[in-house]
Amino acid sequence: xxxxxxxxxxxxxxxxxxxxxxxxxxxxxxxxxxxxxxxxxxxxxxxxxxxxxxxxxxxxxxxxxxxxxxxxxxxxxxxxxxxxxxxxxxxxxxxxxxxxxxxxxxxxxxxxxxxxxxxxxxxxxxxxxxxxxxxxxxxxxxxxxxxxxxxxxxxxxxxxxxxxxxxxxxxxxxxxxxxxxxxxxxxxxxxxxxxxxxxxxxxx
Length: 204
Known about the structure:
about 200 residues, mainly alpha, DNA polymerase, domain 1, Rossmann fold, 2 domains, three-stranded parallel β-sheet
């Protein structure tokens, strides 16, 4: 994904490697999503971006079913303690659905809130409008009743600031743990996605 985004910055904005890297980081830090900066400031067509970045990724060669994650999510749904399991993503809908299908999880989610690349301006995490939309679409009237899991420090801090209940940051890569600047003790950090069951025993 990072390689495809970097290539897009270089090709479409006429940047060298260093310039593309710096601008990508700048947009991510300021907007939480590279495409948000590209659409807002560079007038890039988001659906064209999606076609050559997200949709072009050879995910069927990378992702495989995750039976352990599937079993955990099934236990979560069968517990009777969770009203619905909702996918909340900054990706466009077709990319998100493709990912969960390849992971063998496509039938487990009750709905999805995604970044609609066809609508300008884009509404994405960590914007409050994106969080409000997810709550509305999932039918959650009180954000304190929502459990939020995300791999972005920007997004988990936003969720906590917006009054979401339990907030969990998933750290997958070793370099990300070194960059972790989470000074909020109320945000739970996990290194294995299956640890959701350990840190949220009340839901199982």
